[in-house]
Amino acid sequence: MATPASYKDRNFLAVIGDEDTVTGLLLAGIGHVTTGPSATRNFFIVDPKTETDKIEKSFDDLVARKDIGILLINQHVAEKIRYKIDMYTAAFPAVLEIPAKDHPYDPEKDSVLKRVRKLFGE
Predict the structure, then answer these.
(1) pLDDT in single tens digits along all 122 residues of the chain
(2) Does this entry carry the keyword Membrane (predicted)?
């Protein structure tokens, strides 16, 4: 079980996704950019030309942050780094797969639902 200290400072959502998804969430107000020499953002836009290692680095950077409570990732993007998503077991930030405008959600691919099915013996 998570202790209060493990989540009390986690104030932000983060997103890794296509331009439409990230733009929509930024318009909804989740955007956060820090200033200074080590400026960080809580979002990463993926397009068809984005290299997998950049997506992996963004995922690693966002899950390592202590101020992020939930990381939203488009399911079609998560497929590109599926092994990292499946290996990620920390409670915070919670990693949730979401659909994209051009890519419908497939519950058979969702790592969280796979874990739930395993718990219930399905």
Answers:
(1) 555 556 677 788 999 999 999 999 999 999 989 888 888 999 999 999 999 999 999 999 999 999 899 999 999 999 999 999 989 989 899 999 999 988 888 878 888 777 777 777 77
(2) yes
Q: Pairing between strand 12-17 and 94-98? A: unpaired
Cα→Cα distances 43→10, 57, 121, Å: 15, 12, 35
Cα(21)–Cα(69) distance, integer angstroms: 18
Within 10 angstroms of residue 28's Cβ, the number of other Cβ atoms is 9
On whether the CB atoms of residues 37 and 51 are closer than 8 A, the answer is no
Q: Which domains does the chain have, with CATH numbers?
A: 4-119 (3.40.50.10580)
Phi and psi angles of residue 67, each rounded to the nearest 5 degrees, phi first: -110, 5
Rounded Cα distance between 17 and 104, Å, is: 13
Cβ neighbour number for residue 91 with a 10 Å cutoff: 9
